[in-house]
Structures are given as structure tokens and as C-alpha cells.
Fold this protein.
Amino acid sequence: RDLSQATGDPGKLRVGIVFDSGGKDDRSFNAAAFRGVQQAAKDFPIVLRDAEPGDPASLEPAMRAFAEVGYDLVIGIGFAQTPIVEAVAKDYPKVNFAIVDGVSSLPNVASLIFKEHEGSYLVGMIAAHTSKTGKIGFVGGMDVPLIHKFQVGYEEGARAVNPEIQVIQNYVGVTEAAWNNPGKGKELAVAQIGKGADVLFAAAGNSGLGVFDAVEQLDKLVIGVDSNQNWVKPGHVLTSMVKRVDNAVYQIIGDLVNRRFQGGIHVYGLPDGGIGYAMDQYNEKLISPLVIQDVEAAKAKIIRGEITVTDAMAQ
Amino acid sequence: MLELREITKRFAGVPANDRVNLTVAPGTIHALVGENGAGKSTAMRIAYGFYGADSGEILVEGRVHRFTSPHDAIRLGIGMVHQHFMLVEPMTVAENIVLGLEPGSPFALDLKSAEARIRALSDELGLAIDPTRRIEDLSVGQQQRVELLKALYREARLLILDEPTAVLSPQATAELFTILRRMRAQGKTIVIVTHKLSEVLDISDEVTVMRDGRVVGHRRTAETNAAELAHLMVGRDVLLRVVKPAAQPKAPVLGVRGLAVTFKGGEKRLDGVSFEVRAGEIVGIAGIEGNGQTELVEALAGLTEGGAVSGTIELDGRSVAGLSVRQRRALGISHVPEDRHRRGLLLDFDLQENAILGADDRPPVAVGPGRFWLRRDEIRRKTEKILAAFDVRPPDPERPARALSGGNQQKLILGRELDLQPKLLLVAQPTRGVDIGGIEFIHRRLVELRDAGCALLLVSSELEEVTALADRLLVMRRGRIVAEVDPETTSMEEIGLLMTGGSAAA
Amino acid sequence: MSFLRQLLFPLAAVAAAFAVGALVVLAVGDSPLNTYALLIGSALSWPDGIGYTLFYATPLIFTGLAVAVAFRCGLLNIGAEGQLYIAAFATAWVGIVLAGWPAWLLVPLCILTALLTGGFWAAVPGVLKARFGAHEVITTIMMNFIAVALASYFTQYHYKPPGDPILQTVPIGENAHVARIGALVPGIPERIPLNLAFPLALAACLLVYLFLWRTRWGYQIRATGANPAAALYGGIATGKQIVLAMSLSGALAGLVAVNEVLGYRYRYYDSFSAGYGFTGIAVALLGRNHPVGVILASLLFGALLRGGLFVDIFTEHVSKDLVMVLQGVIILFVAAEALFRGRGEKRVKSV
Amino acid sequence: MSILLILLASAVRQATPLLLAALGGLYSERSGVINIALEGLMLAGAFTAASVTHYSGSPWLGLAAGIAAGVLVALVHGVACIRFKADQVVSGTAINILFLGVPALLSGALFQSTGATPQVPQEQLLPIAPIVLAFLLVPVTWYVLNRTPFGLRLRAVGENPEAADTAGVNVARVRLAAVLLSGALAAIGGAYLSIGQSSLFARNMTAGRGFIALAALIFGKWRPVQTMLACLLFGFAEALAIQMEGVSQVPVQFIQIVPYVLTIIVLAGFIGHSRAPRALGVPYQEKR
Ligand SMILES: Nc1ncnc2c1ncn2[C@@H]1O[C@H](COP(=O)(O)OP(=O)(O)OP(=O)(O)O)[C@@H](O)[C@H]1O
Ligand SMILES: Nc1ncnc2c1ncn2[C@@H]1O[C@H](COP(=O)(O)OP(=O)(O)OP(=O)(O)O)[C@@H](O)[C@H]1O
Ligand SMILES: [Mg+2]
Ligand SMILES: [Mg+2]
């Protein structure tokens, strides 16, 4: 009968994480978060449970289940959970919450947000430098402002290098299912390549995997997103726009363990390494040092405020 | 060639074949005759392995065989043409014929060679069947010849034909008989099931008569005549007598003129039928089943499906032809349908809900605006009244109708329909499958109803029944009324001959 | 007594399904004992467990009833899902457009909208069946896709709050809200979304019972389902009954909107239904197409949904898909009833 | 490549899983057994194929295992409907619900995932074989139905099982064979989705394709060539929706519902009457 026992040792700090509908093995956004909490579970004496609701209607019940049995920290992954975290956090003021990609003003909610547009700007530059056709592609997951943030940053970066460049853009869909449709992701990528694009930026969760398949098949290049995806299709992944969700969730759990947990907005961007582009053995041959130099220069200018990248979500 | 020994077969405890013995000599045409439900089809289906017998033996060429499926019979050279054709309509003649016995390899059906063989067989007997045509494009007569070919193709040496002429025109019948004679000449043995005595006398070498699931006689055709066979078929010795005073017919209630029912392709199952029924009389319709009786009753009740009704139907001088079933019922037409399971009952519903079928809109059962509500207490009271008045056993209103015996189901339906105090009762096969006690009860009720001033139209394929009950008797054949006779003065043999077309009298 | 006998078979099917489920749990490497303890414990805890179980049961009562009513007329309504989607959108639309209207008028109007929209959406396959003989299984499935696409279109292009990352409409007016049970009954926290739709569902069961067994229309619908030929003989216009039964079925499915839109989310939310329409088929089958059975089956499935969530989160390997497996096995056992009864002849339903 | 060619190629790819499932449904339904379980059969095939390919590294082994899974699940449907005379629609529905759950549950146990398998490397994906197979199966199916003894028996038991029975055909055996065949074909369709078109199994990845296949089958009047055309039409609508999205002014939802609206129109009899096999959905009770 004692639910609190059955749901994990109440003697320890208990942390729950609710993934968005992509699930924790999307190799990008959710996967990054999962790496972070797993590392935390290794390093700290905590109980960790996760929920993968699969469909958006089940996000709230999952989050409430954690709060109901008295978990100490509940982390919501993805902007879609913002209103849910708000509602649940109001009902359970003693439970701490964290939301990735969303902003809440409640005192018991930590909002973990990223400057994706700045990272996208940098990979946009790399894409423009690399493209031979003067056409590059963008495949977004769900057609929402957060992903527009990626798209606009990417375009601005590309234009900064080549004002004539043509950016072909598509979104997989308009519902949550858009994150989980690799078949369609592939179709879109094939279509873009058919129109001449030779570098494609995939910001589409699981659907992005279809883009990876397409560039491999048609021998083009893809830019990964969120996690470092350079290893997924070596030789075909130009770079990845990394978003260190893992670091962010690791830090917030660490704060909890060290009794330093604080609500409010936590921003991650270029200076702290929360956002960046991935260079490793898989792609070092794909990008020339000259390009890196140019990109690093732009990065420094952004940090200093000399370049302002449009934040599509702030509009 | 074929011998059935002491074959018994029961359906739900009711014997359809009761120790049937039948011997068919090789190279002969053997007729099997009997009234509807005598058990002819059952016996033949057993001989073909389609049904298993409960007891008894089947001998083919003197050796006992056990049949587990038609497969076994086919192997022994037995072929059967069923009363209802066993053909797959959208497929071609050749496809139907080779079904189950396909020539060629499993990967390539050799229809060409089959078609050639079928053409040869067809030519040999003068059947004129094109093996490449679709069954649905053929006339019934042609379909029947396909059935014949099917058996011949399987090299059947014994051919069973179950009522092959029921669906044929006189010319087609004559052609069929020519073919059968040719087949006999080729050494085949033929069993032909029929009602029509003229045909028996025409085609057969020997004849066996069945009644009530038993064999009641065996004759050489040359040594008998229609009168004797009709006598054996109807079995005067167990004749039922209904005590009834002379009818006092009053004003006409039902007037039917030129009624026809036409189905697609111009097939008329009812053709120019005219008659009237007066208050206080029972008009009987005698005829072999399938001669338009069902279509007549359904047309009068408003239940014709898939066919066009033309002609006049008047109730008390007012046309009802265009009215719905419900409107006709409201005007006082009640109906006891021939198939109580399909039409008459909601088998899974309890007796109460069956007691209001067709009358659910009448007070005091239905009350309120639009007669929306059903009153449970009134339904129960009505049901109990019917169960008591018609001696339905057990009189438990909450039992499902399925749980009643056939006779009690029939009494329930009759009770329900009579409870509406109809002006006109259409009653078809009122005692089919009902035991003797039940039959008497039902007959008495029908006569009482007549004497109360109701007009009754009675359809029954039991000749005894119609002759005993009817005040006037109409004989139907091929969708027409071929004669009106006085049941008091006309002998059953005569009526039987009219029904079966055994004499030219009309 | 006969009622108990009626229960026996569904109980056996449930027990069999749980046994199969236990094997599945073992196979994926968890303890069936712990899993079922967590499942049952979380479904029955007070107040959240009970509250959520009843909350999840509510839409299932509506869809279960919907499927049952159609079934009583011999129709399989696989379209409850589409009917409840379109009804939910329409209900939200009225709640948005007429947000200023007083509650005493707006709430009934919203409920009426749910009924009418759901009813209309189901009437289409009903008419197609009655008029053209189009099989309702196929048409209702097609109507499902159309409903979801239409609701999604209107939400996305016309009623989404600007900049909202989630595919949902703007909120409905406060006056369209249906009260939560927590606001009325002390001791139940208001965070539990159980709302007045639950008593409405129970009332719907009573009304459906009265309609089917105490009124002429109900009788005619059931007669049509039991034996169309006999119904025609009794003067019942079977085509009309088919349309009526489908409309009623759709209206009941539409009432899910009261629970989800008026009582819980206060807006239309894309893909809000966790397959309620399809689970309704299982509910109706298990509940033997009887309102009381529907309530019992809904409570069971509601408990499974609530418990499934806890099993999903707090076990190592078992996911809430266990619930789907349990449902599937229950229906399969109920469908192949003959398996338990020997090789009895079943009523043959022609297409 | 011109846009039209891209569109057509995409339509063919989208039509392939539909066609495989629809041809599977064709065998089952022409034999008289409603197969609404195509969705579940596809899911079973898709999941098994992806899992086995992941472990074995061979897509052919994966495909074979997927087929085996489809046949096994079809066996459940067949036995329930043929042997136990279960309502065919209800049995199919049960299987659909069951296979929404089973792959997800197994993926949890096998891959610590909720509903997905690990990604299969590109070189281990099925080549275009399933596409070729699907379209090759159209004439093959036509041939089997019309030019082999099995096809003859199959059509006969679907139209008039009693006639077939009297002709010595074992109705139950033919129907079961047809249902198993439909399981195999639907499973190939599923496998194409998971290890052909994409490179992993994702939760409910058929997304209603089993039902659309059924609709295509009815649209195609239960005939192979017409069914293929219907699948191509549906595939074309899907391809169009993909290409038009974000490009044209027409909301994608409207393109997506075209096949469904068309199907309803067809069912309402506006485009010729679609006659089902006469014994479809009716369990056959042997008399003996
Ligand atoms: N499959 C069956 N199930 C139940 N009862 C049956 C079945 N077949 C025949 N009977 C019953 O067995 C009896 C004999 O029927 P059978 O068909 O053998 O008669 P018949 O002599 O061929 O009559 P008809 O001239 O009408 O064809 C009838 O009472 C009939 O109702
Ligand atoms: N001697 C025979 N005379 C007539 N028909 C025969 C004979 N032997 C076999 N047949 C028919 O040939 C067909 C094929 O026979 P076979 O024994 O190969 O059956 P099968 O292919 O196993 O068919 P099923 O699957 O129906 O049993 C059967 O339908 C049977 O009716
Ligand atoms: Mg007969
Ligand atoms: Mg788990």
C-alpha cells in the first residue's frame, strides 16, 4: 500500500525526469538530457526515475506522478512542458522543478534556457562555407517558435558568409508527432537535395535521423543538433550544433544535492560552452582551419556583443 | 449401385430421416418423391457425404463405406446436384466445374484442357454450355446443366438430382429429361428427387415414396399410377380432421387484383394473381413451396425486398399497396410468417419483448408523447395474457424466445398476432415443426378467429392442413393461381395433381 | 444471480489477461508481484489514485456507452475517436467564441454542441450504411482521420494563441468551465481533474439504460440489431434505426469533450485523447454492451490507465504499454468466447 | 530531377507499404475473412524485422523474422475467426490494440527504450527489394488468384463456401492459408517501414497505414491491379502533402484528408459499386 516506498527509497534525494515525446533515445535533445541525469545518478547518491510519455497528453500525468509521491526534483524536458510545469509546481510548492527550454516565474521552478540562435549562426556559417551549390537546407521538426530560433540563426550565419545563399526550409509537421517521423524527415531531405541543397541542418529530434539517412544515401552533408552527432554517419556529418542540455541538468541536480537549488532563469550560451559546434575526429577533415578561424572570430564577436543574432522567439 | 440401410438422422432431436432404406439399381433412373419436409434432401445429402448419418449404413456397389465429407462420395463416383445450386456466381463455368479437382500443376491451373473436356462432355449430351461464361450470366436452366457437368466431370457414375425441375420451364424440363435419358443410355445411374408426379411417371424406372422421414413405398414406375403415388405421398390414413362449422362469409376484406412481383432481370415470381378474402372465411393457398406463396404473403404484408410489386391490394376497399409494414399493421393486417426464426422472433430477446414485436406503438404498452415510453407492467400483463391464452409452456415471460420449443414459439407468435384483433390474418406454414397437440390447438384457434369475423389467408405446403382448414382453396403453381377448388368435395389426389402439374386440369 | 453469471465470463477474461500480462512482465525482466502491487496500489490510493482512476474512467464511460449503443443496433462504431475529437474542437470553439455569455447559458450550450457535433459526425457513416450499405467500420475509420485533420487545421491556423509552442487553442471562457469535484467536495484537492463530467457520465448510463430498455425507440434499435429481418416484419424502419443509433452513439462519444475541454484542459488540445474511442470498444465488449457493465469496465480500464502510468515510471523495464497488452488480450478472449464455451455455434453477423 | 519525378518516386515509396498490406488483405478478404488487423500485423512485422536486423546485422534475416512474426499473429486471428467463429472485426481490433503495446513493451526490455529499436546502419537496410517485390506481387497475385488451383479455391470459399465445401474443398484450410499469407505480406510492408524506408522501429510507426491499406483494398474492389492504383493514389496524396508542406498555401491537413474523403465517396457508390466477396465476414459452419 505504501506508494512512497514502492516508488524509490524515500531516504535518498529523489529526482524524476520527464522526457518529451521524442523519448530519451532520440540521439539528440532528449538523449543529451538523459546523459546528464545518468552522470548525476552516478556521481550523487540519488534515486533517479524517468518517464517517457510518448504522447503530449501524458506529459502532465507523468509529472504529477513524481510530485504526488514526493520527489525532490522533477525535471521537464522541452518547451512543450512549460505550462505543465507551471501548473504542477503551483499545486506542489514544496517540490523543486526544472524546465529545459521554457521559462517560468514560480520560485520553485528553475528555467534552463539556451541561446540556440547563436550556435545556429555559427553552423550556418560553416554550412555556407562548405556548400558548393550555394543552396543549403534546413529541416525542422515541429513548426514552432523554438525551432524558428534555430532556423533564423542558421540563415543569418549563412548570409553573413554568402549573401546570395539560398536556404531551403521544411518542417516535418505541426504536431508533436513531427519529432518522431524519420520517414518524413528523409523524404524532406531527399526533396531538398533534389532542389540542389548539399548541406542540411536537421533540428528535428528523431525525424532528423531520416535526414542523416538521406545524406548518406545521396552523399551530401548534414549538421546534427543538440547532442554531438558527428559519429552517427561519419563522413557525412559536417558538424553538430551542440546544446549542452546534459551539463545543464547535471548542474541543477548538483545544486539540489548541495542544497543550492535556485529557481529562476539559468541561461546557457556561447561563453559558458552551453552552446557550441562540435569538432572531433569524425569531422576534422570536413572543415578547413580557415573556416574555423572565421567562425571562431564571429563567435568572439557575438560574445562581445558586436554581432547580434536575431532571437526568433523573443519577437 | 447405391443402397441406404436403416439411415437415421436427427436435427436437434427431431428425426428428418427415420430408418430409411433405399436401393438404387444400376443403370436406372430412380425417382424419390414426397411432400415438403419428408426427408428426401436429407437422405440424399447423407448419400453424398454432406451430412453424417446418426446411424445406418451406406453401401456403394455392395460394399459398406463411411463418408466423412463429399470428398469420399466423389471418390466413389457419386455426384449430386443440390436443390439450391452450389455454384460460385462470379466465377466461370469451367472454374466452377474444376473446383476441388483442378487440372494442371499447383502453380498453373490448366483451364484450357478442362474447357476442352467440358466442351466435349457438353457436346456429347447436347448441353450447349460455353465453359468460359460466368455463372451469373447464365439462366437457371443453364446453371443446372453446369451442375450436371460438374458431376460428370468428376466421372460420377451415380448422379443425384435434388428437385432439378423446380426452377425449370416446361421446355427446359423436357430438355433435361432428354439429357437424363441419354445419360442412362451411357450406363449412368440417376436418382431424381421431385414432387411432380407427372415427371416421375415420365422419366423414372422405379420410384420410392417418403413421408415424415420414412420410406412408405417402393414401386416400379410401369406398375403404378399418379393416384396411387399421391395417395402414398399424402397418406390419408393419418389425416387430421378439424371440426368446423360452415363458414359465414361476409363483406370482402382483402381484394387482390393483378398482383405481380418482378425481380431484376424481369423474373416474375408472382404473376397476375387476383382473388379476394371475405370476413369470416379462410382462404387456403395450396402449392409446392417455391411457387410464389412466400412472395404473395410478403407482398401483402409490405415486406417485398429487392423486387417490384405491381397490381392492386385493397383492404376494406382502400388501397394499401403503397403503405409501409407499420401502416398496414395499423389498419388491421396481422401476419404469421413462414420462417419464425428469421422473421417472426427476436430469438435472444425475452418473451415480453417478442410479445410486442409489431405492436410496440400501441397503448397501453406505449404511452406519452409520440408513444415514446414503454410500460413494463403493461408489457408483462400483455405477455402473460398471451402465454395463458395460447398455452405457451413454460409461461415464463422472462425467458429468451430461443429457449422455447418450436411449437411454443409458434403459439407465441400466433398469440401475439391474434391479440391485435386483426381484420386480416396472413398466416404461412402455421404448424411447421409443431407437434400433433400443438397443431390441433393452432387449428382450433384459427377457426375461432374466422368465426369471430376475421378474414384469413392461409398458406401451407401441408396439403392436409390447407384442405382441412380452408373454406375455399386456391392452388398456386409457378406464381399463378391455377385453380380454385372446394376442399370439401375435391380429393387430395386431385389437388395434389393440380399442385404438381400432374394433370392438365386447371 | 444471473447478473453474477453475466460477470463471470468477463472476469475470467480479465483474469486470463492478467496471467498473460504476468508472463510478459517476467519476460521483460521485472517482478509481476511488484508490478501488480504498484498498479493496484497507485490506482486505489486516496485521494489521488481514486480521483484519477475516476477521472480516466469518465471518457471511457462515454465512449464505451457510445460503442455499446451502436453495437445494440448491430453496428461497430470504430469512429468514436473521431467523433470525440471533432466534438471537443467544436465545444472549445463555442467556449471561445461565446466566452462572454453567462455560465448558466454557456455550459449547457457547450454540452449541446458536444452532443450535436459528435452525433452529426457519426450520423454520416450511419446514413452511408443505411442508404448505400457502406460498411461502417471503414467509413468511421476514414471519418476519424478527417476529424483529427480538421480539428488540427482549425487549431493551427485559426485558434492557436500566437507564439504558443503547443498545438492547442486559446482557452475557453471561464464561464464555460465545469466545476471540479474538488471544488465541491471537501477532502478532495482541486488539483485532481475529476469534474462534474463524471456524474454526467453516470447519468448518461442511466439515461441510455432507460432509453434502450424503456422506450420505443430503444426497443426498435435493439430489435434492428438483434434481427433486422424480424424488425422489418414488425414494421420497424431499420435504416432509420441505424442512423438514429449512430447519431446517439456519436453524441455520447462527443460528451468526452465535457470532461476533457470543459472540466480539465479548458481548451482544445491537439491529440488530447489517449485512444479513448478505441478503448471504448474494449470497454463495451467487456461490459457486454450494458450500461452497468460499461461503468464497471471503465473503472477497470481507468484504474489500468492510472496504474499503468506508475508502473511505467517506477519499474525498471515495464512500460505502460502493458496496459495495451492487457486490453488486447481481454478483447481477444472476449471475442473468442467459444474458446471457453466449447465449440458452440455463435450468432452469425453478416456484413 | 524534375519535381514531378521526385513526386512520383516519393509516391511509389509511400505506396509500397500500403500495397504490401493491401495485397495481404486481399488474400484474406477474398477468402471471406475480414482483416482489419493489418495495422497490428504491420507493426508486428516492423518491430521484429528491426530488432532481428539489429542483432543479426542481416536485413534478410530481419525480414524473414518479420514475416514469421506476421504469420504467427495472423495465426491467432485465423484460429479465432475460423476455428472459433469469433467476430472477425472484433478479433482484428484486439490484435491492433495488442500490437500497439507489445513492441513498445519489448523495446523496453530489449533496448531500454519506450517503443523504439536502435537504429540499423545504412548498409544493413533493405535495398529497394520490398518496392520491387510489392509491385511484382501485383501480377503475381493476379496470377495466383486467376490461374492457380489455390486461387480458384480461395475465390470460391470467399464467395460461396458451401459450394466449395460440396466440391470437396476444405474451407477452413484455404481460409487459414489466406489469412497467414496476409500476415506475411502485411509484415513485409511493416518491415519495409522499419528497415527500408527508415532505419529503426518507432512507436506506432504505421500511423494508420493498415487501415488505409484496407481502404485501398475496398477502393480497388478487392482486385490486385485496381488496389495497386488505389495505393498509388494514396501514396501520391501523401507524397504531395510532403512536397507541398511549407511551399504551398494549401494547408497540409487538406491534402492529407483527400484519400479518406475519396474512400468515403467510393463507398457511397459514386464511383461504381464495390462489391465485397459475398461471404466476407461470415464464419462458415461445416455441416457435419
Ligand atoms: N440443416 C438442418 N437443420 C435442421 N433441420 C433440418 C435441416 N435440414 C433439414 N431439416 C429438417 O428435416 C426435415 C426434412 O427435411 P428435408 O430437407 O430432408 O425435406 P425434403 O423432403 O427435402 O423437403 P423439400 O421438399 O421441402 O425439400 C424437415 O423438417 C426440415 O425442416
Ligand atoms: N477418384 C476420385 N474421383 C473423383 N475426384 C477425386 C478422386 N480423387 C481425388 N478427387 C478430387 O481431387 C481433388 C484433389 O485431391 P487431393 O486428395 O489432392 O486433395 P487436396 O489437394 O488435398 O484437397 P483438399 O485440400 O481439399 O483436401 C479433391 O478435391 C478430390 O475431391
Ligand atoms: Mg429438399
Ligand atoms: Mg518502467
Summary: The CA atoms of residues 407 and 434 of chain B lie 4 Å apart. Chain B has a mean pLDDT of 88. Chains B and A do not touch (no CB pair under 8 Å).
